[in-house]
Design goal:
By secondary structure, this protein is of the alpha/beta class. Helix content is about 20%, strand content about 35%. The chain has two domains: about 120 residues, Sandwich (Immunoglobulin-like), CATH 2.60.40.10; about 220 residues, TIM Barrel (Alpha-Beta Barrel), CATH 3.20.20.80.
Length: about 350
């Protein structure tokens, strides 16, 4: 897949690449009080030869382009190390991100050392509350929503898999005109441009990592690189999209042959751990065609379900779904797949897309 490439000069004291994470802890409660608490965590790296005391200032800009909140903190970063600076601010009367009104804010994080500017990063984000509930279904900002999803591969007709923003905009506008409000990426991490288009148009997303794990489907597919690169690749996927308000689910794979093997549960456990080492605000799921009947207790399929927050079932009948739901009454099944049934209520509060300047 072709995408854009940039070359960036990095100062000794800087914001790390994709090291800003915007969340809204306790969002439902703070919204009822008229404001959300927006927390901006920024990893600050010091490649200098001496420790640095770094002033970290955060300014939030609203959808109208006006300043919405400001905050600051100071962090001491030893030479050759990285520290996380956390700044929390309150936004009064926020404009929420939704599929109808995809309002976006921007967090500007500025670093200075001894009064001299060192680095800055701008992070577009949206404020929204997402809930998956086993009884009530899916809700966005406290309102029930029927998910109408599509599963699209990364091709644009004659353009192929080259990434052209205008082609992505055209495609997703066509999808939205058909009533689509949810996109499952198939079956690999999406281009950042696609995530940006979805958050600007108001289309929810499930971002998916792999079409195979250790065991491949084709002679020259990703299984050749999985053992060496899967941990770093799935972490990069999360870091690239962790802040987008459009992204509400992570998927660790699609119809992977290893789901039915003894190595499957261990692989799933590691991939889930990779994701949750970065982001614990969104459910982690996978898509599989190996749950057309109820798994035996202790089987690879059964053990993999214990690692997941949800399951996407492909090619299942209504009868098989009844059996699965009876054994796993709270396990979700994400949109863009055959059936959808959530596990425990899970909240994914907010997100942003980061870009260094």
């Amino acid at each position: 897949m072709a995408s854009s490439a940039t070359s960036t000069w990095s100062p000794p004291v800087r914001c790390t690449w994709r090291g800003t994470f915007v969340t809204t802890p306790g969002l439902p409660g703070t919204l009822s009080s008229g404001y959300p608490t927006v927390q901006v965590n920024t990893d600050v790296q010091n490649d200098g030869s001496a420790a640095a005391t770094v002033q970290v200032a955060v300014t939030l800009t609203g959808p109208d382009g006006k300043a919405a909140a400001q905050g600051s903190t100071t962090v001491s970063v030893p030479a050759g190390q990285t520290q996380t600076a956390a700044v929390s601010v309150k936004v009064t009367n926020p404009q929420l991100w939704s599929t109808d009104r995809p309002h976006l804010y921007t967090a500007r994080t500025s670093l200075s050392v001894g009064g001299a500017a060192a680095d800055s990063v701008s992070t577009p984000f949206g404020i929204r509350d997402v809930t998956f509930d086993p009884a009530a279904g899916f809700s966005l900002n406290g309102r029930y929503m029927k998910i109408q999803g599509v599963d699209l591969h990364a091709t644009e007709g004659a353009v192929g898999s080259a990434v052209r923003n205008d082609a992505l905009v055209r495609q997703m506008r066509l999808m939205k005109s058909m009533g689509v409000n949810f996109l499952r990426t198939a079956h690999n991490p999406p281009a950042p441009e696609l995530v940006a288009v979805c958050e600007q148009l108001g289309i929810l997303m499930m971002v998916e990592a792999f079409d195979c794990w250790h065991t491949g489907k084709l002679p020259y597919d990703y299984h050749l690189y999985f053992d060496q690169w899967s941990d770093s690749d799935i972490k990069e996927m999360v870091n690239a999209s962790k802040n987008s308000p459009a992204v509400v689910l992570w998927s660790i794979g699609n119809e992977t042959p290893d789901t039915g093997s003894s190595r499957g549960p261990g692989i799933a456990r590691q991939l889930v751990a990779d994701i949750k080492s970065i982001d614990t605000t969104r459910p982690v799921v996978m898509g599989s065609d190996k749950y057309r009947s109820v798994p035996a207790t202790g089987s690879p399929q059964d053990l993999i379900l214990a690692e997941l927050d949800g399951l996407g079932v492909n090619y299942n009948t209504a009868m098989s779904m009844d059996g699965l739901h009876a054994k796993y009454p709270g396990t979700p099944s994400p949109p863009g797949m055959t059936t959808t049934t959530p596990r425990a209520a899970t909240r994914a509060p907010t997100g942003a897309r980061a870009s260094c300047t």
